[in-house]
Design brief:
The complex is a heterodimer of chains A (150) and B (137). With 150 residues, chain A is an alpha+beta fold. Chain A is built from 3 helices and 9 strands, in the order H-E-E-E-H-E-E-E-H-E-E-E. The longest helix of chain A has 17 residues. In chain B, 23% of the residues lie in helices and 39% in strands. In chain B, strands 1, 2, 3, 4, 5, 6 and 7 form a 7-stranded mixed beta sheet that branches. The chains are: A alpha+beta (150), B alpha+beta (137).
């Protein structure tokens, strides 16, 4: 059970995140479930996608070309319809009340960016760092990579 | 190509009930399916040599376990299965609940199955490359 001090810190993190959001898209936590079909073969029956808007919105930073030593970048550019899209690595700071450790470790969970025009970018979590206090997690620095852009 | 892949995956899964078979592939529905699974036999298809006569697909069988000896035991079971027979009937799994025989087989060379150790700090990784022949349609 988190201590009162931990809950206080989590509330502080949430307050700060709610005032610093400068990202151009909304961030959701997506959970995908499927029933029927044959998951071993990648043949799914009924697929249900549930996107929950994160509240407050996390702090998102695109890692891009400058952040990785040596100027190395994982960005990939390709066309989706008539638009050029860039897939890249992102760092997302969330509090433990926004996203739990279980959700981060759930292979059926992804982070999703959505813009006002309905474009969706799905990211997979590749790494995360934990900020903890008194034995409880306060926040997670989540490193994720663009996996799908529509 | 799809039937050959599905058939091989089910051949392993249906005949190795004590092992977890994981198909490593890029999956728009579940993007984390591109990650290997620990304590499982992971299967990846990476090359398709297509011919109007006999086609061949290259597969990688990667046994990943926390414990080396458990990996060896799992690899032993895979080898025993692949050496017990050199072929299995190819089935069309378009309707997974009712696979339909295609009238051909998928087959492999049971005499050349080699597992090699791949270095990792996190798990023991035993890897094998297997060429699977089939009649592509």
């Amino acid at each position: 059970m988190p201590s009162g001090r931990v809950n206080s810190f989590i509330a502080k993190v949430n307050r700060i995140l709610s005032t610093t959001n400068g990202f151009d898209r909304k961030v959701y936590l997506r959970t995908t479930t499927s029933t029927g079909g044959d998951p071993l073969l990648g043949r799914y029956g009924t697929v249900t996608i549930n996107d929950v808007l994160l509240t407050p919105q996390p702090f998102v930073e695109r890692l891009g070309r400058e952040r990785i030593p040596g100027g190395h970048t994982n960005a990939q550019t390709y066309l989706v319809g008539s638009s050029m899209k860039v897939g890249d690595d992102y760092s997302v700071l969330v509090s433990s009340s926004m996203v739990s450790l279980t959700q981060l470790q759930n292979p059926q969970c992804q982070l999703v960016f959505k813009d006002a025009n309905g474009n969706v970018e799905v990211l997979t979590v590749h790494d995360f760092e934990t900020v903890a206090l008194d034995g409880s997690d306060i926040a997670y620095q989540v490193y994720c990579r663009s996996g799908q852009i529509t | 190509m799809r039937s050959a892949r599905d058939t091989f995956l089910h051949y392993l899964s249906d005949n190795l009930p004590g092992l977890t078979i994981n198909f490593v592939h890029r999956d728009a529905t579940n993007p984390n399916n591109s990650k290997p699974q620990i304590n499982a036999v992971n299967v990846l298809f990476f090359t398709d040599l297509l011919s109007p006569h006999v086609s061949r697909m290259q597969s990688s069988i990667d046994v990943l376990y926390n414990d080396e000896l458990q990996a060896v035991d799992a690899a032993q079971q895979v080898v025993a299965l692949l050496q017990a027979a050199a072929m299995t009937p190819e089935l069309d799994y378009t309707n997974p609940a009712s696979p339909v025989a295609t009238g051909t087989n998928i087959y492999w060379n049971p005499f050349t199955i080699t597992f090699k150790t791949v270095s990792s700090d996190v798990y023991f990784h035993y890897s094998c490359t297997l060429a699977i022949s089939h009649h592509n349609r």
